[in-house]
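Think of the structure tokens as a kind of shorthand, similar to the way a musician reads notation: each symbol stands for something richer, in this case the local conformation of the backbone. In the example below we present two proteins back to back. Begin with the first one, reading the sequence and then the tokens, and try to describe in your own words what changes along the chain.
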Amino acid sequence: MPQRLQKLIAAAGLASRRTAEEWIAAGRVSVNGVIASLGDRADPALDTILIDGQPLAAAEAHHYLLLFKPVGYVTTLQDPEGRPTVCDLVRQVPGRLHPVGRLDLTTEGLLLLTNDGALTQHLAHPRHQVDKTYLVRVRGQVAPETLRRLAGGVVLEDGPTAPAKIAKVRFSAGHTWFEITIHEGRNRQVRRMCEAVGHPVSRLKRVRFAFLDLAGLRPGEFRPLTAEEVSRLKRL
């Protein structure tokens, strides 16, 4: 049955639908020797679909992993500087896995990886407002009014942040610990929010993504998601 090309590419685990659309617009995809256009359809059983001259493989089985990312790993498929990547931790799992979002080099915690491009795009889309909760340690004792500023939203160079939830505040050895829940996905957002209120982050760990947590995992370990967990993510 003919399907839109971006859907076929995403189903093969090569990219999200949005990225596939960019490939099509850039002229990187052809069907039966003709450069494809956005909106074109094809039947992988009958048509020859090429991406950069290479055949589109049949859709592979989808894999969904929950990884406890350690500090010191970059959230990319490959790193030009030769640093270890999160994909190095899941080499034994078949398929071209992609991280869902990212955690920076010095941030640890919960990271999803999958070769389901459609789910990756679904979870990353701003309209779904998926909650992400971080355990934060900042330098100094944070005043209650400063925590209220964080909760109400902070003005950053790329605009004001949405309101956040602050919980489990405690003080220890010159540091303040708390949990912050956000639903945006800006680059280094929690770190920049804390810097904006004068309390740089000294440790950052993502402890929850939507309803998922790190229970039973140590840094560097991962587990497959259950069918029910995958179904719930798709309904978010």
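Once you have a description of the first chain, move to the second and do the same.
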Amino acid sequence: MSPGDALEQFSQGNPAPVYLIVGDDATEMAETANAFEELIEEGLRPFNVDRFDGGDDKVTLGTVIEAARMFPMMAPRRVVIVQRAKDCLMPKRDSQAAEKDQEAFEAYLSEPQPHATLVLVAGNLDKRRRLVKSLFAAAVVVTCGVVESLEDAEQWVCRRVAASGPTIAPAAAQLLAASTGPDLGRLRGDVERLLLFAAGQSAIEVDDVREIAGPVTMHDDWAVARAIERGQADLALRELALAVESGAAPV
């Protein structure tokens, strides 16, 4: 499930008891976890939102379970967010206490509290482990940072811009994605530049993208040929359109 779909599910009053946030984009994972907190009314967050850092030696799966079992106050649901959950899901040192906590957590996954939503930000986990297998089976898995195609890139651009406030025209998102390609690092940098350029605007249009990208960035003489060699017809056509828009004469 995408971050946007998971947050929409929660906001519509039909949240899952456990969300597992995975992927390679640490920024998007953190932003997604924060967005879950923001779905709780601001004045009620101190009573109904708990945040933990799994990298803290004092934080264990037992700590997380205890927080999830607390009843919400003046709200239908509480949210428990665990950053760096990998550290407590897969502790570096085995101990009887850790083993007991893992057994208790597996039991919780089989019967989660109906009044709590547990959000685990875990990055990449070893799926060979029994507890991890149980977690993937029980949780709604939210994948961040998967950008393998231009369509993925466009969706990522739209989500990132929307998270910052303004809207972006579909053609503008398409142009930025095509000019950058499915490269998450470049996408993030270009979107940040775009947001700075368009600061104060309620909507971002194609002309804004052209201003921050520029014809040199947008036009790669060999991009069309590389796309054809890889059999990516959609990418080849978009690169051709970009080349023409940036002033190149079709041959």
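Compare your description with these statements about the second chain. The beta strands are 18-23, 49-53, 78-83, 116-123, 140-144, 167-168, 203-204.
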